[in-house]
Amino acid sequence: MQKTAATRSPASPLAGFLLRRLGTSVLLLIGVTLVTFLLTNLVPGDPVTAALGEGPASDPATREAFIQAHGLDKPAPVQYVMYLGALLTGDLGRSLTTGQPVVADLAKAIPATIELAVAAIVLSLAVSLVLGTLAAYRRGMVTDQVLRVLTLIGLSVPTFWLALVAFYVFFLQLGVVPGSGRISPSITPPPTVTGLYTVDYLLNGDSVGFLDALAHLTLPVLVLSLFTIGLLTRFVRTSVLEVLDTDYVRAARAKGLGGWRVVSAYVLRGASLPILTVVGVAFGALLSGTVLVESVFSWPGLGSYSYNAARNLDLPGIMGVGLVVGVIYLVINLVVDLFYAILDPRVRLS
């Protein structure tokens, strides 16, 4: 019995930690629905006129029928309870812009944004780990100074301006990459499995479609990555510098371990927790903040959908986007907390 209890005890702190985080996430999700509902109802303008147009909205009978059908004549608390009840059944309402269920619209937009954001964060993290570690090891030298200037430029250049310049130079002038959309008009979309075109083409064994989707993905990913690389590189440099001054790294060097062994087994592992936090925040920002880049490159993702919903005062669409963005951040924070608990056992007991 003692052996069994001892065997199970290391897993219990992690399980308890996950249960606490899941409970917190559920409460935060309820808060997200409340904030989304309140902010959406505070948007100025007349949703009836936005949905029906000036002509039909001026007809009292048509206007009254629309209000009753959507529960707009009920008090705000009742509308919120109705909204929660619909959410439990997976009903986010019908978009006033597209005429389709918001769930169906988001099912098409979210995978496009996920594909863009995942490619950008993977590229940014790979480049930043190399550049940030190199800058830390070359602290105060020419390499460090050059990288600090380059990352400052990456942080300073407005993303929307860079997207316009990249579109003009590489598509309109040089023609080396496709300019807009996820695939060329002559290419048939892949059978939907994940919604990520590059992945679905690979699963379908279509190399032509995969290369075409990858080519369309290249330019917007590079534009999004520039700012993220600048942010992560500077943070990796700072985190690595802090770890390089610790006793256990100096002890590893004194043992005669090779430079790469020290970096991979000691330095990056020790610097991983703060880096992981920034990566989670950057990934959430990429998923929820690609409106301008998607507009420039005609990328049919969450950013383009939210822009069209806000422009047309599409309240169901706006509420759907707000809820999705909130869920994105909750899920990312939960995943980051999970990695924290795996990498640092002390977190499980906090």
TrEMBL record:
Gene Ontology process terms (BP): transmembrane transport
Boundaries of every ABC transmembrane type-1 domain copy: 110-340
Transmembrane annotation, as ranges: 21-39, 116-137, 149-171, 213-232, 275-297, 317-343
SUPFAM superfamilies noted in UniProt: MetI-like (SSF161098)
Protein name, entry field: ABC transporter permease
Record-linked PANTHER family: DIPEPTIDE TRANSPORT SYSTEM PERMEASE PROTEIN DPPB-RELATED
InterPro entries according to UniProt: BPD_transp_1_N, MetI-like, MetI-like_sf
Sequence similarity: Belongs to the binding-protein-dependent transport system permease family.
Keyword Protein biosynthesis attached: no
Protein localization: Cell membrane
Domain of life: Bacteria
Pfam families xref list: BPD_transp_1, BPD_transp_1_N
Major location (coarse): membrane
The UniProt record lists the keyword Transport: yes
Annotated keywords: Cell membrane, Membrane, Transmembrane, Transmembrane helix, Transport
Membrane topology: Multi-pass membrane protein
GO CC terms: plasma membrane
